[in-house]
Design a protein that fits this description.
Strand order of the largest sheet: 1-2
Shape: globular
Subcellular location: Cell membrane
Membrane topology: Multi-pass membrane protein
CATH superfamily: ABC transporter involved in vitamin B12 uptake, BtuC
Family: Belongs to the ABC-3 integral membrane protein family.
Radius of gyration: 21 Å
InterPro entries: ABC_BtuC-like (IPR037294), ABC_TroCD (IPR001626)
Transmembrane segments: 6-26, 33-51, 57-78, 90-109, 143-165, 177-196, 202-222, 229-253, 259-280
Structural class: mainly alpha
Distance between the termini: 69 Å
CATH architecture: Orthogonal Bundle
């Protein structure tokens, strides 16, 4: 039963991160998730120092605050300072993450709160983090948290599909139609920030970034249709979580790391398949051209 909870957690995180990652890929902002997952570290430390407690809600508030701060800083550098988007992301997350590392080393030496915990998560311990109401256990608490977040993500995509679609493919055209692109941008960034914060404590920052980027990128190789991309992303995310777990069992390795490796392996296989298909089509077209030329 423990294996089931671990796999289910991986699937829920893969779906919530991957579905939002599709829009980040289309907006060429794939590494925003990486920035947020690292930049929340000072928020976690400051929340601990203020509350003098490792209470999950307090940590979540601190992390969410810095997650939102990260998105605002990236957008501010990009819009106001005229710095390229990738440079804005790099400046913001390295600066905030470095501050977090310094705070950890200065103030939390005697507490089980470190950058490795944030980076790698504790997905293997998910089955033991139970939700108790009175004397009754309702399964692992992270399952309820991730499940609730996934429902919010799906509902947000369904009801905001048109706005997300237009602003992701052509923000200039959307602005010409009178659509408030800034509002949709911050709604998406807010959803990404919340999802990253809720997910990284369970599976770690590395796997969160992998699920945000790799399954959507794999889907993008196969289709440029948004609806089809979302379905392919869900499929590849589930396959990465399940396949990665059994890789970890086989290798006796990190579960989060193995899930990320599985996602990368799927991307490579699809990429090679697409390239082979392109080469075969080019050869077919060349043969048809030569045949038609000779016939003429």
């Amino acid at each position: 039963m423990n294996d089931f909870w671990i796999i289910l957690t991986g699937i829920l995180v893969a779906l919530s991160c991957g579905l939002l990652g599709v829009f980040l890929i289309l907006r060429k902002m794939a590494m925003v998730g990486d920035a947020i997952s690292h930049a929340v570290l000072p928020g976690i430390v400051i929340a601990y120092l203020v509350a003098e407690s490792r209470n999950a809600i307090v940590m979540l508030i601190g992390a969410a605050a810095f997650g939102l701060l990260t998105t605002f800083m990236i957008e501010w550098f990009y819009r106001r300072a005229r710095i390229q988007a990738d440079a804005s992301i790099g400046i913001t997350f390295t600066w905030l993450f470095a501050i977090g590392v310094i705070l950890v080393s200065l103030y939390t030496g005697n507490v089980d709160l470190d950058q490795e915990c944030v980076l790698y998560g504790d997905i293997a311990y998910i089955p033991f983090n139970l939700l108790w109401i009175g004397d009754n256990s309702f399964g692992p608490a992270p399952i309820w948290l991730q499940g609730g977040n996934l429902i919010l993500v799906i509902l947000g995509i369904i009801f905001g599909f048109r706005g997300l679609f237009i602003t992701s493919f052509d923000a200039g055209f959307a602005g010409g139609l009178g659509i408030k692109t800034g509002v949709w941008h911050y709604l998406l960034m807010g959803a990404v920030s919340l999802t990253v914060v809720l997910s990284f404590n369970a599976v770690g920052a590395i796997l969160v970034v992998a699920f945000l980027v790799v399954p959507p990128a794999t889907a993008y190789l196969l289709s440029k249709n948004l609806t089809t991309m979302l379905w392919f992303t869900a499929l590849f995310g589930i396959a990465s979580a399940v396949g990665g777990f059994y890789l970890a069992v086989w290798w006796s390795a990190s579960i989060s790391g193995s899930m990320a490796v599985a996602a990368g392996a799927l991307f490579f296989l699809v990429f090679m398949g697409v390239r082979i298909n392109v080469i075969l089509r080019q050869k077919q077209h060349k043969r048809e051209f030569q045949f038609n030329t000779a016939k003429a």
